[in-house]
Design brief:
This protein is an alpha/beta fold and 551 residues long. Helices cover 25% and strands 27% of the residues. The protein has 2 domains: 3-43 and 431-550, Immunoglobulin-like (Sandwich), CATH 2.60.40; 46-426, TIM Barrel. The chain is built from 12 helices and 27 strands. The strands form 7 sheets. The chain has a 9-stranded mixed β-sheet. Strands 2-5-10-11-12-13-14-15 form an 8-stranded parallel β-sheet. It has a two-stranded antiparallel ribbon with strand order 3-4. The longest helix has 16 residues, at 367-382.
Length: 551
């Protein structure tokens, strides 16, 4: 069947699917992937595989920092199992200290002798957590009353221990420019040449930290100051009017929009452009935050099949956000100097029950969250020419995390396994890839509580090339059906292939402290037919990486 006829057939199947009232399933056959290796999109920046930690719930205290005297194995106070496993992922950048916590944070509280550091009320102290009865107050503890035992030096050391670059978010809401300049001086000034570099040396860090990535505020439309975009543009210009580099190239990230708020992007860039193009040239990245949220009762591991599809479709909206903001940015930055930094993304559910109440929004995630991760990473790679960085929120114990801990317990979440599977993409060249497959459909309640039909693609992903190796990653969101798919490499022949698959017959599959290997990837042999023909069956509810050697 010719491609145009095939697409027409698929469109007919899809349109039939969306009119039914309940979750629907496509046929097992009739899918096709074409990898166009001669149509490069651009290099996939390693910083697309970055992370984010905030003083929120159990992220820092217990998730990362256990203290040097802890019985839990540690490297200078940081969990050993966290360092060892994160290092395997070769993370690009780690963002810190927030998030909304950054908007009340004074970095000076977190340096010097730990027993002399002040205790402050955490930004998240008044957050209610969900119990089986009601929402209740956060109990006392380090997650509520911040003792600042983990600060700038500990964070930078943690980054270096896992091979990541530190990314510090400055407080634009409640601290002035001078505090920002002093933080920059503390981190980057040569040893003992300034007051703050001498303080750093006194604290045991003679050599500069050489921090390149700096966020100028966080969510300045909300917890970061409740600014208008015009007001934030003024603050950005003020905070960046003069920044000493100390020989370290600075990569400034602007506080970008909440989801699809293109007005924020347009008005901010207009505000910079009023003072000339050199203002826009200061920016390395434009932050974008988007959480696809949750569904139903908002419990991570409790959802219907319909809600399975609902969340995955919401995750897929990231593509439209990237395209829309990129278009607006181009109106002011015709040279395309500024890239997107999607420095908060992921699903967001209520807290699970296997950790204490202080661990706000803590849950280990399920197979559904793993597919959310894969959908986002594939989007970022399909837009490798637009995106310089991406950071799921957050690294450990909270929201869309890769690790889950409690005291001496430690597990890898399904999200971790997706990042591991996608590692070969980093540094490779993204290439255009066509996915043709019948859509999946489900229903969603509108504002009047009426069921409306919704559909989205039935097989999606991305591909990259590095030498003679093509890495193809794909998501089959269909909860029940295999997608038998013909795979072609335009301009080459497939010589050999292997697969790594994350899937389960249970769409609620997850890892727990009692069963840490409840959901892990498996390797599969792949048979290549005559002439390099490859027909692969993508498992239901799966994330798959195909490694293809071409000639």
């Amino acid at each position: 069947m010719k491609r145009r006829e095939f697409v027409k057939t698929v469109a007919t199947v899809a349109s039939a699917a969306v009119i039914a009232p309940k979750a629907l399933y496509s046929q097992e056959t009739g899918s096709k992937i074409e990898v166009l290796i001669n149509e490069p999109i651009g290099p996939i920046h390693k910083d697309i595989y970055s992370h984010f930690v905030e003083h929120l719930g159990g992220v820092v205290y217990d998730g990362i920092w256990v203290g040097e005297k802890s019985k839990i194995p540690n490297y200078n106070g940081v969990r050993k199992d966290l360092v060892d496993n994160l290092k395997k992922l070769k993370p690009g950048v780690i963002r810190y200290p927030g998030g909304c916590f950054a908007d009340q944070y004074d970095w000076r509280d977190g340096v010097g002798a730990r027993d002399k550091r002040p205790t402050r009320v955490n930004f998240w102290a008044d957050t209610k957590y969900k119990t089986t009865k009601a929402y209740e107050d956060l109990p006392d503890g380090p997650q509520k009353y911040e003792d600042n035992h983990f600060g700038t030096d500990e964070f930078v050391s943690f980054c270096r221990s896992v091979g990541a670059e530190p990314y510090l978010a400055a407080n634009v809401r409640s601290r002035d420019v001078r505090v920002f300049l002093e933080w920059l001086e503390y981190c980057n000034a040569p040893a003992n040449l300034t007051t703050w570099s001498a303080e750093r040396a006194k604290n045991g860090y003679r050599d500069p930290h050489k921090v390149s990535f700096w966020g100028v505020g966080n969510e300045s439309w909300g917890c970061g100051g409740d600014f208008t975009p015009e007001e934030y543009a003024t603050e950005f210009r003020k905070f960046t009017a003069w920044l000493p580099t100390y020989g370290v190239p600075l990569k400034l990230i602007g506080s970008g929009p909440n989801g699809g708020d293109v007005n924020w992007t347009r008005k901010f860039f207009e505000g910079l452009a009023q003072k000339g193009g050199r203002q826009i040239a200061k920016l390395y990245g434009w932050g974008l935050h988007y959480y696809c949220g949750s569904t139903g009762q908002q419990v991570a591991n409790e959802y219907t099949e319909n809600e399975w599809y609902d969340l995955l479709e919401r995750a897929n909206r990231m593509e439209t956000l990237v395209e829309d903001h990129w278009q607006v940015m181009g109106e002011f930055d015709r040279e395309r100097r500024v890239k997107l930094a999607v420095d908060e993304w992921g699903a967001w559910h209520k807290q699970d029950s296997d950790v204490p109440p202080g661990y706000l929004y803590a849950y280990a995630g399920t197979l559904r969250d793993a597919l959310v991760s894969a959908i986002n990473l594939d989007i970022f790679q399909r837009h490798a020419d637009k995106i310089a960085m991406a950071n799921p929120a957050q690294l450990v114990n909270t929201i869309h995390s890769l690790f889950h801990t409690y005291e001496d317990k430690f597990i890898l979440t399904p999200n971790y396994h997706v990042f591991e599977m996608y590692m070969p993409h980093a540094g490779a060249t993204a290439v255009r890839t066509e996915f043709i497959s019948p859509k999946v459909g489900f229903t969603r309640l509108d504002a009047q509580k009426k069921e409306i039909p919704v559909s989205f693609w039935g097989l999606g992903g991305s591909a990259s090339i590095n030498g003679k190796t093509v890495t193809l990653t794909a998501v089959n969101p269909d909860a029940k059906n295999v997608r038998e798919t013909e795979i072609n490499i335009g301009g080459a022949r497939i010589a050999s292939a292997n697969a790594r698959v994350l899937s389960s017959s249970d769409i609620h599959a997850r890892n727990t402290f009692a069963n840490p290997n409840g959901l892990v990837p498996r390797n599969e042999a792949v048979t290549i037919g005559a002439g390099g023909r490859l027909v692969y069956k993508f498992a239901p509810a799966s994330v798959t990486r195909l490694t293809l050697q071409i000639v």
